TrEMBL record:
Domain Mur ligase central: 108-304
Subcellular location: Cytoplasm
Binding-site list for meso-2,6-diaminopimelate: R377, D401, N402, P403, R404, G454, E458
Protein's gene: murE
Modified residues (N6-carboxylysine): K219
Gene Ontology MF term list: ATP binding; magnesium ion binding; UDP-N-acetylmuramoylalanyl-D-glutamate-2,6-diaminopimelate ligase activity
Its biological purpose: Catalyzes the addition of meso-diaminopimelic acid to the nucleotide precursor UDP-N-acetylmuramoyl-L-alanyl-D-glutamate (UMAG) in the biosynthesis of bacterial cell-wall peptidoglycan.
Protein name (record): UDP-N-acetylmuramoyl-L-alanyl-D-glutamate--2,6-diaminopimelate ligase
Keyword Kinase applies: no
InterPro entries: Mur-like_cat_sf, Mur_ligase_C, Mur_ligase_C_dom_sf, Mur_ligase_cen, Mur_ligase_N, MurE/MurF_N, UDP-N-AcMur-Glu-dNH2Pim_ligase
Catalytic reaction list: UDP-N-acetyl-alpha-D-muramoyl-L-alanyl-D-glutamate + meso-2,6-diaminopimelate + ATP = UDP-N-acetyl-alpha-D-muramoyl-L-alanyl-gamma-D-glutamyl-meso-2,6-diaminopimelate + ADP + phosphate + H(+)
Mur ligase C-terminal domain: residues covered: 326-456
């Protein structure tokens, strides 16, 4: 493809060199540049891609998209734009043949529930007999082919490349998580969405967004950008639900477990094995627990309806689906207590999981919670996490999560600082996560629940920049065998 063809959707300030040069690839990572590639110099949050223009040229890059023009090198074309962040997605979309217009792409955004909703939609539409793509925190899929995920939402180049692979594989639908980072950094720029779903909004990622308002506006921008022929399904039970869709051009639908809405549900029965629900007047058994999962299921149901599926067919498939790996995943111990592994890593997510556990226990057992907080992330939520754990647990063990480049004990101290003397009587801290889980299991008696929160599907601990193998589920199974 010629350079001027991939520039059709952007407005360059200046072009230095031959705009007819052939482009063999597009990349924002200078290390991946090959002969004939276009290198996009992004001003990222950690490093400035302009520093690597010379390296990209050295590796064979023949064209550069940048904000600041360097000293020209012969035989290289330079394209200056106001924002490479804004241009990257639009350029990648054209280079990969505008793949999002060749399938029905649905985005899911919000603080909690994105992975569950996107994955359930992927599994549901595959059961309907369609070829489907998935872009999620846990794993990306091109129909049945897994592709490991490094970020909730890939960079715009990788994203369009994956969507193009989905189109090539014959996928009719694709479901993707849209993180606030990805929306704010315009990683989804240039994509055409058939629909968007909003889950909920609670405190998260304030280390990046700085204020809750900025965080909310990043999510809202996704719905502001939806086209007129798309649908926008929002959670009427969340106070920000209608804020999300107030400026969208898309067809708005609502879902609720508490108030009038287009899609409604209520719990009839609840057990650790699942729930019996009424959805829009029809009864269905599902293999999930917790009121928050009723909301997730409603979002899935609503999206499937908007994508043209019959309600009775949707409910039939819903009854066969299982929870996503590491999301409220129960493991029965030989001693008669239940361990639950969950990804909850925000105060609200932790509250939701503990609420779900109490709904089933109904006062007939104790709850022992093991949790921590990630390093080099929003420090403000650490004391809130500890408070939420203490509020709904009989005992709490505060431990390491992914400390990254921070000292684990310092993170634990930040969590403990949010507790008063009375609350601290419920709490012990154990830096070693494996030992913390073992201790919780030793405390538990028949009928109790041990909640291991924070890592869910993750099979590693990140310490000082190195990922060490660590899987909460494996640890529990090993403890139960011993």
């Amino acid at each position: 493809m010629k350079l001027n063809e991939v520039l059709k959707n952007i407005h360059p300030i200046k072009i230095v060199g031959d705009a007819e040069v052939e482009i063999t690839g597009v990349n924002i990572d200078s290390r991946r540049i090959k002969a004939g590639h276009l290198f996009i110099a992004m001003k990222g949050t950690q490093v400035d891609g302009h520093q690597f223009i010379a390296k990209a040229i050295e590796l064979g890059g023949k064209s550069i998209l940048c904000e600041d023009l360097p000293e020209p090198v012969g035989g290289v074309t330079y394209v200056q734009v106001a924002s490479t962040e804004d241009a990257a997605g639009k350029v990648a979309t054209l280079f990969y043949g505008d793949p999002s217009r060749k399938l029905k792409l649905v985005g899911v955004t919000g603080t909690n529930g994105k992975t569950t909703i996107a994955t359930l939609l992927y599994n549901m539409f595959r059961k309907f007999g369609h070829k489907v793509g998935l872009l999620s925190t846990v794993c990306n899929y091109v129909d049945d082919q897994p592709i490991p995920a490094d970020h909730t939402t890939p960079d715009p180049i990788e994203l369009n490349e994956l969507l193009a692979k989905m189109v090539e594989a014959g996928c009719e639908y694709a479901f993707m998580e849209c993180s606030s980072h990805a929306i704010h950094q315009k990683r989804i720029g240039g994509l055409k969405f058939a629909g968007g779903l909003f889950t909920n909004l609670t405190r998260d990622h304030l280390d990046y967004h700085k204020t809750f308002e900025n965080y909310r506006n990043a999510k809202k921008a996704f719905f502001d950008g939806l086209p007129k022929d798309a649908f926008a399904i929002t959670n009427a039970d969340d106070k920000n639900g209608m804020v999300m869709v107030q400026n969208t051009k898309a067809t708005v639908k609502t879902y609720s477990t508490r108030t009038l809405a287009d899609f409604r549900a209520r719990i009839l029965e609840c057990h650790f094995e699942g729930m019996y629900l009424e959805i829009d007047g029809r009864e269905v058994g599902v293999q999930f627990i917790g009121k928050f999962n009723v909301s997730n299921i409603l979002a899935v149901y609503g999206a499937a309806v908007m994508l043209g599926k019959k309600p009775e067919d949707i409910l039939l498939v819903l009854s066969t689906l299982h929870s996503v790996s590491g999301r409220l995943e129960p493991i029965r111990s030989p001693e008669g207590f239940t361990a639950i592994v969950d990804y909850a890593h925000t105060p609200d997510a932790l509250a939701n999981v503990l609420n779900a556990i109490h709904e089933v226990l109904d006062g007939k057992g104790h709850v022992i919670t093991v949790c921590g907080a990630g390093g080099n992330r929003d420090k403000g939520k650490r004391p809130l996490m500890a408070q939420e754990a203490v509020r709904q647990s009989d005992r709490v063990i505060i431990t390491s999560d992914n400390p990254r480049f921070e000292e684990p004990q310092a993170i634990i101290n930040d969590m403990l600082a949010g507790l008063n003397d009375q609350q601290l009587r419920k709490v012990i801290s154990i830096v070693d996560r494996k030992e913390a889980i073992r201790t919780a299991c030793m405390m538990a008696k028949r009928g109790d629940v041990v909640l291991v929160a924070g890592k869910g599907h993750e099979d590693y601990q990140e310490i000082k920049g190195v990922k060490h193998h660590f899987d909460d589920k494996e640890v529990l199974h090993d403890i139960f065998k011993a």
